[in-house]
Amino acid sequence: MHEMSIALAVIGQVEEAAEQAGDITAVRSVRIQVGELAGVVPDALSFCFELACAGTVLEGAELVTDSVPGRARCAPCAHEWAVGMPPRLSCPRCGGATTDLLSGRELQIVSVRWEDGPTHALTREPIPEER
């Protein structure tokens, strides 16, 4: 289950940001973007996140997941469409197979809310994937 490695990567990045911010005693919530083509099961990620937060500054934090739909653009005719699941990567207008994936593979932390504090946007770096 690669959702556990993703949860651990999120926790690691948030702990690092909390340490750099200084004097952070608890994290209330973490908001992430997950593209529908990222191969991540949001419920499994939430479960793993809750387990992995135990004993950390994130213990009890809520994981808020924003789903990002997959969208593609046909290079020859510039038509854009929702890719859907299973993904349709050939152009529905002209049948072209030369497409650019515009969205749907995102996996990144958007913001973190500290205990009794404001929401902080983190740099929008992708969450490292397991290799």
From TrEMBL:
Molecular-function annotations in GO: nickel cation binding; zinc ion binding
An example Gene Ontology biological process: protein maturation
* Keyword Protein transport assigned: no
**Sorted alphabetically, which keywords does the UniProt record give?**
Metal-binding, Nickel, Zinc
**Residues that bind Ni(2+), according to the entry?**
H2
- The residues the record assigns to binding Zn(2+) are C74, C77, C91, C94
The domain of life for this entry's organism is: Bacteria
Write down the InterPro entries for this protein, in alphabetical order: HypA/HybF
Database matches in PANTHER family:
HYDROGENASE MATURATION FACTOR HYPA (PTHR34535)
Q: Which family does it belong to?
A: Belongs to the HypA/HybF family.
The job of this chain, per UniProt, is described as: Involved in the maturation of [NiFe] hydrogenases. Required for nickel insertion into the metal center of the hydrogenase.
> What's the protein here called?
Hydrogenase maturation factor HypA
